[in-house]
Amino acid sequence: MDYLKQAHGVSTRRACRIAGISGSVYRYRPDSTRDTPVIAALQSAVERYPAYGFSKLFKVLRRWGHGWNHKRVHRLYCALNLNMRRRGKKRLPTRNPEPLTVPATLNRCWSMDFMSDSLFCGRRFRTFNVVDDFNREVLAIEIDLNLPAPRVIRVLERIIAWRGYPGKLRMDNGPEFISIALADWADQHDIALEFIKPGTPTQNSYVERFNRTYRDEILNMYVFRNLSEVRQRTESWMTEYNDERPHDSLEDLTPWEYLAKHQRAENSNQQCS
Questions:
Q1: pLDDT digits over 16-67, tens only?
Q2: Is 224 helix (H, G, I), strand (E, B) or coil?
Q3: How many C-beta atoms lie closer than 10 Å to residue 195's C-beta?
Q4: Spatial strand order in the sheet of 137-144
Q5: Helix count (H) and strand count (E) of the chain?
Q6: 65 burial type by CB count under 10 A (0-12 exposed, 13-18 middle, 19+ buried)
Q7: Coil, helix or strand for 200?
Q8: What is the pTM of this model?
Q9: What ranges in the chain are assigned the alpha helix state H?
Q10: Collapsing DSSP states into helix, strand and coil, what is residue 216?
Q11: Considering Cα of 254, then 59, then 214, then 44, what sign does the dihedral take?
Q12: In this structure, are residues 259 and 106 in contact, taking their beta carbons and an 8 Å threshold?
């Protein structure tokens, strides 16, 4: 366009006609500051939740009150090179999966599992994770070098003191779970113990999915020098997980929001009846 105008001395209108574009396209100048608020909000969300991918970050922006189109946010997300690397599948998916039933109320079934990791010095530690299947709420993450069956019972009693008794506990066949001490304690409180089949972690999918999130966002994200650092970081993350992190399976609500919604519905039904 500029060449036609300068070399041949034609008008802007004629130059546009020769080039086959409209005058508005030629005069258009993109506003470089238009995307500044979106970029700032994205960077703020990534700093707050560094382990979240685009889908989760977009939901966070919506929860913060921003109404930007997902295509625009995704364009800037890619332009800022915030894309997270996808994990390759290491094993074939189950051909005939058996979906777990979602409990109708809280405390119907808790899922439990152990994880392990190491400190900066190389010393190994373990975590004992407890999740309520109803709203995927993390009830406890106990962290120590060793977590025997009596310690597991103390953690469960600590949860029961504020949460109430569960109807059932789902777990694998670890030595702490198949111990006589845990069996006697569960029998005294009328709590059923449900053990998954050996080698089938998909039967305990709720806590296994939680374990992956906990490892991605805490254990693999930071380097810890001692157990106190692990406990402090985990404690603050548990509040974030229950109160701020939206879940696809909970209608994009957080565990506490989903529980509050369920309780309001129950109260409304009781008043109507």
A1: 887 787 878 777 776 768 899 999 999 999 999 999 999 999 999 999 999 9
A2: coil
A3: 15
A4: 137-144, 124-132, 110-118, 168-171, 192-195
A5: 11, 5
A6: exposed
A7: coil
A8: 0.80
A9: 2-8, 12-19, 23-27, 36-48, 54-63, 70-79, 149-163, 180-188, 205-214, 227-243, 255-272
A10: helix
A11: negative
A12: yes
Residue in the block written with tokens 């490892």: 215
Name the pairing type of β-strands 110-118 and 192-195: unpaired
Closest CA to 217 of 92, 115, 81, 110: 115
Q: Which residues contact 142 (CB under 8 A, 6 or more apart)?
A: 127, 128, 151, 152, 155
Q: Could you tell me which of 258, 121, 160 has the C-alpha nearest to residue 152? A: 160
Instruction: Copy the structure tokens of residue 5.
Output: 């105008």
Q: Please give the DSSP secondary-structure letter assigned to residue 69.
A: -
Residue showing tokens 């305990």? 204
**Nearest-CA neighbor of 51 among 177, 181, 240, 242?**
240
